[in-house]
Design a protein that fits this description.
Blueprint: H1 3-17, H2 22-29, H3 33-41, H4 48-57, H5 62-66, H6 74-88, H7 92-106
Helix pairs in contact: 1-3, 2-3
């Protein structure tokens, strides 16, 4: 996946997570809905000023935007989760924290 597509996909994911339609986010950022659609599809890349406005509107950090953690496959995510659990096996406090977090998320 190229960087434009990765950035676009993350913007789309954060937009939906924040409950914005493309039209609403485009209005907040002061760009056209078509422009935002092209950004999300990876067909164009926003100007730095526009990218900053998008990140502010979505309460998104630079790290969240450019890290690859959100692009892992389900198997990669499960492997990472299992690794965290394995590392917590010998530490009761860590294991309890992992348990409480997972229980809260699943309920």
């Amino acid at each position: 996946m190229d960087i434009k597509k990765e950035v676009g996909e993350k913007i789309k994911r954060f937009r939906k997570k924040n409950g914005f339609t493309q039209e609403k986010l485009a209005e907040i950022v002061d760009i056209s809905s078509r422009n935002l659609s092209n950004i999300e599809l990876g067909l164009s890349y926003p100007k730095p000023e526009t990218l900053e406005k998008i990140m502010l509107a979505l309460n998104m950090t630079t790290e969240e935007l450019f890290s690859n953690d959100n692009l892992k496959t389900n198997d990669e995510l499960l492997n990472d989760i299992n690794k965290f659990i394995s590392e917590a096996k010998t530490d009761r406090l860590k294991l309890e924290k992992v348990y409480k977090i997972l229980k809260t998320l699943v309920e």
